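Hey team,

Filing this mostly as a record. A colleague (T.K.) asked me to run one chain through the structure pipeline before their review meeting, and I want the input and output archived in the tracker in case anyone asks later how it was produced. No errors, nothing strange. Just documentation.

Input sequence:
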Amino acid sequence: MVQSKKQQLRVFVVDDEFIIASTLELILRQKGFDATSFSSPVDVLEAARSGAPDLLISDVVMPQFSGIELAIRLQKQCPHCKVLLFSGQAATAGILATARANGHNFEILGKPVHPTDLLRKIKEAIEVGPLSPSITTGAPERVNEFETGGVRV
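Output structure:
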């Protein structure tokens, strides 16, 4: 039996708010992805030494270092890993602009990230290749946003 690309895709999800990372992991697993959640960017780099992810989904603003810095480090370690970032803070545009000026093109989704939007972006990454260097903002008031433990994702 041949597995689909979606079932084979190894995804690392990182957010310093564990409930968000673990909720996204659960959503991705339910859709057939091999997803693992992390609350520390350092743990992501350590795990990638054992097996490279196909896709990194990361929050931008985290205490140890930013998701952009994590993405840059991870892509040095795993050059074929694609990156999708998300953030609830408007201040990330400056960080993203600096990364782009240094040749790193990452897409940022606005929090809250609706599961349908996230799955669509993952599908685009799988089918089209590298994610485009644009900023997409999430709709702040969707009726059908996924909520768990009082946290919207």
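Quick notes for T.K.: The CA atoms of residues 7 and 31 lie 8 Å apart. The beta strands are 10-14, 34-38, 55-59, 82-87, 107-110, 135-136, 147-148, 151-152.
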